[in-house]
Amino acid sequence: MDSPRLTKTGHPPRGIEAKARITARVLQRKRAEYEALKAEIARLDAEVRFGKPLILSTGMATLGEIEAAIDVLETAGTPRERITVLPCNTEYPTPMQDVNLRAMLAIRDAFGVAVGYSDHTAGIEVPIAAVALGATVIEKHLTLDRNLPGPDHKASPEPGEFAAMVRAIRNIELALGDGIKRPSPSEAKNEPIARKSIVAAVPIRSGDAFTADNLAVKRPGTGLSPMRWDEVVGHGARRDFDNDELIEV
């Protein structure tokens, strides 16, 4: 995920235009849940005219309705690669058993779009889990006091908890890595002592054949890798080896 950026939710076309005028630096606009459900062409067209990346929030929508909304956006000129779809539940706060984070992956795989999650649960676990699953956008309401009246406040973290959520998400992003399995820089110093080598299990004289009985695998990992065991067994020793000495071929 990129650094947090300001977004606005536009509703009817006039509202969208007014918000665009007063928020000229807004980079993205978010469609409210019922807009995706109704998929009204005129309103979607109004969004597309701005030519910005578009976030489509999909509370109460079915997979078929999401597909219809994406089709309308593409027809109106928004390429699929500029659309991010956010699964959402419109109950405040959302029960954990109704979150269904796997639906986010289903949307990504079905339509080839970027996905995120619009979260209305009472805690911060769901946004963190969503990022671990591949969310590129997180929507989470923020309140100064959870005890204030209104449905949003009880489902929203206060500033300290919100900051903890952001820190956790940033750590998750770091932990996800690049997907290439290789020793990490931090563990390089452990490699010589953690890995093992093929050594003499007993004294071996020059000309003796290496066998499973006179070889062993022990630390440190500064000699022949145990991955070469089958290559070594059967070879003749070119010199004498003391007990526990690293084998050479």
Please state the average pLDDT score: 86
Number of structural units classed as domains: 2
Q: Please count the beta strands (DSSP E, at least 2 residues each).
A: 9
Category by helix and strand content? alpha/beta
Molecular shape: elongated
User: What are the secondary-structure elements, in order, as H or E?
Assistant: EHEHHEHEHEEHEHHHEEH
- Helix residue percentage: 25-40%
Q: Which assembly state applies to the chains in this document?
A: single chain
Poorly predicted runs of 5 or more residues: 10-27
Give the end-to-end Cα distance, rounded to a whole number of Å. Answer: 51 Å
CATH topology of the largest domain: TIM Barrel
Number of helices: 10
How much of the polypeptide forms β-strand, as a percent range?
5-15%
For CATH, the homologous superfamily of the largest domain is named as Aldolase class I
Radius of gyration, whole Å = 29 Å
State the CATH architecture of the largest domain. Alpha-Beta Barrel
Strand order of the largest sheet: 1-2-3-4-5
Q: What is the CATH first-level class name of the largest domain?
A: Alpha Beta
Characterization of this structure:
This is N-acetylneuraminic acid synthase domain protein. One of its GO terms (biological process) is carbohydrate biosynthetic process. InterPro entries: AFP_Neu5c_C_sf, Aldolase_TIM, PseI-like, PseI/NeuA/B-like_N, SAF, SAF_AFP_Neu5Ac, SAF_PseI/NeuA/NeuB. GO terms for molecular function: N-acylneuraminate-9-phosphate synthase activity. The chain has 249 residues and is an alpha/beta fold. Helix content is 35%, strand content 12%. The strands form 3 sheets. It has a 5-stranded parallel sheet. Strands 6-7 form a two-stranded parallel sheet. Helix 6 links the parallel strand 6 (117-119) and strand 7 (138-140). Helix 6 runs parallel beside helix 8. The longest helix is centred in the last third of the chain and has 18 residues, at 159-176. The two termini are 51 Å apart.
